Amino acid sequence: MKLAIIGTGYVGLVSGVCFAELGFDVTCIDNNPDKIAQLQARKCPIYEPGLTELMAQNTARLSYTRDLATAVKAADIVMIAVGTPPDPSEEGKADLRYVYAAAEELAAHLDGFTVVITKSTVPPGTNREVARRIAAVNAEAEFAVASNPEFLREGSAIGDFMQPDRIICGTEDARAKALLEQLYAPLTTKGYPLLITGLETAEVIKYAANTFLATKIAFINEMADIAEKVGADIELVAKGMGMDARIGERFLRPGPGFGGSCFPKDAQALARLASASGVYPEITNTVVKYNLARRESMGARVVEACDGSVVGKTIAILGLTFKANTDDMRESAALHIIPFLLNGGAAIRAYDPEGMANAKPLLPDAVTYCENASTAMQGADCVCIVTEWDEFRSLDWVTIKPTLKHLLIVDLRNLFKPEDMANFGYRYHSIGRKAV
Fold it and tell me: Over the chain, what is the mean pLDDT?
């Protein structure tokens, strides 16, 4: 079976490499010449643990091209994996022009029965519109559409693909169903579940899953605020909650709010979809508003820890990306915290293991970027941990101590135990726990 994947962004590239690892011949297509040249040189354009190595192991089954026509003509399955960013013209609306452009472009080159799969996150009805547009361009095309949303977490995407909690495929065509079962047989034969649904059901599953996880994060953050006020330890609260099998421990980590390419965008899109359908999405709207307010409030936490003012103070920011093990800056808390502190009169020295190149165009020029955490903390009045990189967990706070101007740490990821930091001599502020 031959696969053609349109789009070599995060979803398209990870999926293409993983399908090659499963034994399929995969052609990855992109209209960006620089990206294709980089891929053809066997260089990975994104940071994802293990992806570069997996690309190298599957060179015989992987190819990269700008020639959509040839790749689509040879394919049994064509996957659309292009971006669906927020539409700037209307809040919460997904911008589907790239999906529809890909559908219209591939339509003319379909040869024999082909399954056209949308892996991009799209609102209900999109796949039917994809089918309509393909047929409008090529009335003779023999094809079926399917929705196959991805559930890949940045930083652990390969494991998520190769050991999935579930595989969701939406289609109403028997031949497409058979090809999808064949495509995922290397995983289903190992016991990973495949759920076949209708088109709209598959489309809604993706939005519902992401919004539910976002809700868990927002909830535990609200509980963290309560825990701080009443003297409880949010880490133990979350552990006690997670021991209930009905709740589970995942996504109960308090912090500066959810970010990234999926949760904020998908929650807003689901809210808009609900409103357009005549349903007021009170829970989803609250989650979206609460999360935005939380990210915006994190800078104020730093100011409060600095005795109410950061004027003339140097703040070391450790971590810029929205989460660890990615170079993705989309909806990162750092994009709110750093401008807030700069506006308050602080000097910012920042370090991130992978995200600084992507951060620079998004942050004010006044930020000083450092080659490592130690350099960023040199002479700092306050250290603020924004992203939960393992590198920060292993910092030697005894050695660091004499390099700091003031021994103040604001840990927005709860990487350390308050009592340990107090024993080292630090003033330590974290999330949902007593400051020490």
Answer: 96
